[in-house]
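Example record

Each entry pairs one chain with its bound ligand, heme C.
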Amino acid sequence: MRPLAPFLLFIITIMPFFSCDPGRDGQRYAHLDRRARIRLMQYRAEGKKLYMKYCSNCHQADGTGLARLYPPLKNSDYLLNHPDSVICGIRHGHKGEMIVNGITFNQEMPPIPQITDLEIAEIATYVFTEFADSVMIISQHDVQEIMKKCRKTH
Ligand code: HEC
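Structure tokens for the complex follow.
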């Protein structure tokens, strides 16, 4: 019976990697190490709550937007091509003409001046992983760096 012990130990050690995060997310983030995956899940969970509070009124819970009034975030070429402007826009809002997937929008997106860098990071992580197939965390530090440059690009 002796050889069984190391084998059992091995199974117990690797079990969490297979038993955690079942379903779609588990498969999608399987390449990340355990800590990174847990952190990503936390950012996504917080980001989703904030998205529902601050963004879903206009962009809709499923990110598909509303006709020609509010552009979609889901599969949006703007989101993929202008990540910095998207992050700045969460705090500073958007004004003027904007073309999303070939459709011109020209409505004002209101600023949220009181929103913190961490909250922006959580919303951005949620939006990019949920609607643009990214598998990365946008950290609070990333947001700090991007926010410094907002005025020039905005
Ligand atoms: C009052 C409605 C409204 C709210 C609330 C709102 N937006 Fe917007 N959003 C807009 C409009 C309108 C535009 C287009 C702006 C323009 O025409 O210049 C836009 C543009 C965008 C874009 C760039 C275009 C695209 O579709 O990829 C992103 C990304 C975005 N919003 C994300 C968010 C996020 C994240 C939140 C929540 C923090 C949010 N918006 C809250 C109305 C809104």
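The mean pLDDT is 89.
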